[in-house]
Structures are given as structure tokens and as C-alpha cells.
């Protein structure tokens, strides 16, 4: 199974920015954990971090052609990027939306996701382990077509 992991804007600053919310682990450490989990479970995982909305959309389009599923942390784009939501809807593979913090226990504007209606599922609030939970979810549904949408 081939899975693309996409980290959105500002996630390159993990371990430095708002550590009381996002923790002390940097993105390199999180990516290492993701890749090791994939290797242990026979998965091919490709990881990207982008701050640009258009680049995230391009990655989603590519994933729709070349991968079995996507783990997407859209960062702040979660709350207003209808373009990323449209890209998730447009590809015919499962996408799991991930957030390190619990977006529902934070500021009001963070409680609305414009991506979630098009995602197969959402995992929020388990810190960096949220990524592993999302990958496990994709493994369990087998990737391929969107679960419940075909």
C-alpha cells in the first residue's frame, strides 16, 4: 500500500511554535516515526510539507493518480481553503484529515473544517500519534476508492 502524507503550513515549525499546544517534537522526528511505522508494516510512505495552498493541491492531485490513500494535515487551511476541500473531493482515494491538537477544544474558528466533508475520516487531538492512527485507518480500509463513497 502506498500512502502520501502531507503536512500543511507552519508544520515545519513543530517543536518551536506553540509547544504548549503542538508539543516539543520537531517535524523531522515525526517524519522518522511515520517512516519507521510504514517500514514495519510493509507500507510505502512518501512525506511532504508545504506552506503553499497550490502546492498542497498539486500533491493531492498527484496522490489521486499514484497512491492508495492520503494523510493530510491542512493546518490553518482546514478552516477556509475550499480549494483544498475541492481537491480532496476530486480524487478518488481515501483521505484522512489529521490534526495534532484537538481543534474542537480551541478557538471557535478552528472548530470548522471545510475539508472534513470530503475526507474519509478525521483524527484530531492525539499529538503526533494522530498520523499513525490515520495510517492505521487507511490500512484497515485497504486504500483504493473512498470508503463509503463508491
Automatic annotation (TrEMBL):
Family per similarity comment: Belongs to the type-II 3-dehydroquinase family.
Organism: Anaerobranca gottschalkii DSM 13577
Enzyme Commission code: 4.2.1.10
Subunit record text: Homododecamer.
SUPFAM superfamilies per the UniProt record, alphabetical: Type II 3-dehydroquinate dehydratase
Reported function: Catalyzes a trans-dehydration via an enolate intermediate.
Alphabetical list of HAMAP family matching this protein: AroQ
GO biological process: amino acid biosynthetic process; aromatic amino acid family biosynthetic process; chorismate biosynthetic process; quinate catabolic process
Pathway membership, UniProt: Metabolic intermediate biosynthesis; chorismate biosynthesis; chorismate from D-erythrose 4-phosphate and phosphoenolpyruvate: step 3/7
Reactions that this protein is recorded to catalyse: 3-dehydroquinate = 3-dehydroshikimate + H2O
GO molecular function: 3-dehydroquinate dehydratase activity
Keyword rRNA-binding: no
PANTHER family for the chain: CATABOLIC 3-DEHYDROQUINASE
Site (Transition state stabilizer): 17
InterPro entries with a match to the protein in the record: DHquinase_II (IPR001874), DHquinase_II_sf (IPR036441)
Catalytic residue list: 22 (proton acceptor), 99 (proton donor)
Protein name: 3-dehydroquinate dehydratase
Keyword Protease: no
Alphabetic keyword roster: Amino-acid biosynthesis, Aromatic amino acid biosynthesis, Lyase
Binding site for substrate: 73, 79, 86, 100-101, 110
